[in-house]
Amino acid sequence: MAKHSLDKDKIKILLLEGVHQSAVDVLERAGYTNIEYHKVALGEEALVASIQDAHFVGIRSRTQLSENILKHAKKLVGVGCFCIGTNQVDLLTAEKLGVPVFNAPFSNTRSVAELVLGEIIMLMRGIPQRNAVAHRGGWLKSASGSYEVRGKTLGVIGYGHIGTQLGILAETLGMKVIFFDIQDKLPLGNAQQVHSLEQLLSLADIVSLHVPETPQTQNMLSKTEFACMREGAVLINASRGTVVDIDALKDALQSGHLAGAAIDVFPVEPKSNSDEFISPLRGLDNVLLTPHVGGSTAEAQENIGVEVAGKLAKYSDNGSTVSAVNFPEVTLPQHSDTSRLLHIHHNRPGILIKINQAFAEKGINIAAQYLQTTSEIGYVVMEVETHQADTAFEQLKKIEGTIRTRLLY
Ligand SMILES: NC(=O)c1ccc[n+]([C@@H]2O[C@H](COP(=O)([O-])OP(=O)(O)OC[C@H]3O[C@@H](n4cnc5c(N)ncnc54)[C@H](O)[C@@H]3O)[C@@H](O)[C@H]2O)c1
Ligand SMILES: O=C(O)[C@H](O)COP(=O)(O)O
């Protein structure tokens, strides 16, 4: 069992945005009992107050860990995004501060694909507007603008974990699937890759976005792209709000060029369930608006809690950074008879030599050494005999270029 230079009950874990109880259970079972739990995202001031003495922080998509916030988090050792997206974290700043960021890359993908599948059917039948009219006492019984999905073409933009699953599910309903991705991807089922966004938009009856938020995907669909879409086509966005130019979408819907849309993510989202949702799309009957719930199912949230909490506990216990999104990935075996030292440094030539020299001068024998780097930082993990661990730790702290170092007994 790993022993820490800091006792586990002194390691503060801040969990925000109501991450699933399964996360708390995993951390407590691993011996981490100093957990500050909030059901909501914190405002900037409260976040700064809570994060400044936290060693780990767990968030979902609402909490912005900006450069400013991260710089207040002087004790921060690791970040867990209990979701897929990591765009809410300033990953480069975290990396430079020696803070790995972990996420759950798969656990909610099936939930998103299922929601989108349901929305495809609802939109193709014109259900959002029939539902809205019925709520106002109207009765829109008509086959006009109502279609089966069988035989229709689904265009998937971003053929990753969600896009591929959606494609397979859509094919089971008899749909034809085409996709556009910046990488060459293995088409699953009978799906076909097309080689330009314009081609996809001109062929698809339903367009569904599944790309991450990046500089390239910012307003990826705007006025010109909507004009490329087929008359009467529908759009689904359950990726990120910044990917669609919402005003241009509103125009395309109001002009009747697009028959409908289902939007789960927005450029600006309410910070809590008690804040007002403001969007130009409010009041459009042919638009399904959902409050960023694509991944919000009991199954997904429980699995994410277990997955991300497990990664945080593992990094804290033994230094493993496997699947960190901004950090050199080091896979580590369990250590028992030795002490383990973790050293994060600026990636400059000669640091490993300096460490080895400093240890040699003190007669410290290195039992094992693992190193990985990115262009910004290096992460070296060493095992030494326990009676030499404190001396080794003191030597490591003095190495020029050190960002942070930790000792696991
Ligand atoms: N609504 C929700 O609750 C919810 C839940 C989970 C994920 N998401 C969002 O969905 C996104 C996709 O999730 P995923 O698991 O499928 O991710 P993924 O990384 O598995 O797939 C993303 C795909 O997009 C492609 N891509 C990237 N940039 C592109 C571009 N400019 N043009 C075309 N293709 C591009 C990538 O090559 C990749 O194949 C996530 O990044 C997240 O933001 C939303
Ligand atoms: O990135 C994700 O996984 C989704 O956007 C879900 O985010 P949430 O955990 O805030 O619902």
UniProtKB/TrEMBL annotation:
<dbReference type="InterPro" id="IPR054480">
    <property type="entry name" value="AHAS_small-like_ACT"/>
</dbReference>
<keyword id="KW-0520">NAD</keyword>
<keyword id="KW-0560">Oxidoreductase</keyword>
<protein>
    <recommendedName>
        <fullName>D-3-phosphoglycerate dehydrogenase</fullName>
        <ecNumber>1.1.1.399</ecNumber>
        <ecNumber>1.1.1.95</ecNumber>
    </recommendedName>
</protein>
<keyword id="KW-0028">Amino-acid biosynthesis</keyword>
<dbReference type="InterPro" id="IPR045865">
    <property type="entry name" value="ACT-like_dom_sf"/>
</dbReference>
<feature type="domain" description="ACT">
    <location>
        <begin position="340"/>
        <end position="409"/>
    </location>
</feature>
<dbReference type="InterPro" id="IPR050418">
    <property type="entry name" value="D-iso_2-hydroxyacid_DH_PdxB"/>
</dbReference>
<comment type="function">
    <text>Catalyzes the reversible oxidation of 3-phospho-D-glycerate to 3-phosphonooxypyruvate, the first step of the phosphorylated L-serine biosynthesis pathway. Also catalyzes the reversible oxidation of 2-hydroxyglutarate to 2-oxoglutarate.</text>
</comment>
<dbReference type="GO" id="GO:0004617">
    <property type="term" value="F:phosphoglycerate dehydrogenase activity"/>
</dbReference>
<dbReference type="InterPro" id="IPR029753">
    <property type="entry name" value="D-isomer_DH_CS"/>
</dbReference>
<dbReference type="InterPro" id="IPR029752">
    <property type="entry name" value="D-isomer_DH_CS1"/>
</dbReference>
<dbReference type="InterPro" id="IPR036291">
    <property type="entry name" value="NAD(P)-bd_dom_sf"/>
</dbReference>
<dbReference type="InterPro" id="IPR002912">
    <property type="entry name" value="ACT_dom"/>
</dbReference>
<dbReference type="GO" id="GO:0047545">
    <property type="term" value="F:(S)-2-hydroxyglutarate dehydrogenase activity"/>
</dbReference>
<dbReference type="Pfam" id="PF00389">
    <property type="entry name" value="2-Hacid_dh"/>
</dbReference>
<keyword id="KW-0718">Serine biosynthesis</keyword>
<dbReference type="InterPro" id="IPR006139">
    <property type="entry name" value="D-isomer_2_OHA_DH_cat_dom"/>
</dbReference>
<dbReference type="Pfam" id="PF22629">
    <property type="entry name" value="ACT_AHAS_ss"/>
</dbReference>
<dbReference type="GO" id="GO:0051287">
    <property type="term" value="F:NAD binding"/>
</dbReference>
<dbReference type="Pfam" id="PF02826">
    <property type="entry name" value="2-Hacid_dh_C"/>
</dbReference>
<comment type="similarity">
    <text>Belongs to the D-isomer specific 2-hydroxyacid dehydrogenase family.</text>
</comment>
<comment type="pathway">
    <text>Amino-acid biosynthesis; L-serine biosynthesis; L-serine from 3-phospho-D-glycerate: step 1/3.</text>
</comment>
<dbReference type="InterPro" id="IPR006140">
    <property type="entry name" value="D-isomer_DH_NAD-bd"/>
</dbReference>
<dbReference type="GO" id="GO:0006564">
    <property type="term" value="P:L-serine biosynthetic process"/>
</dbReference>
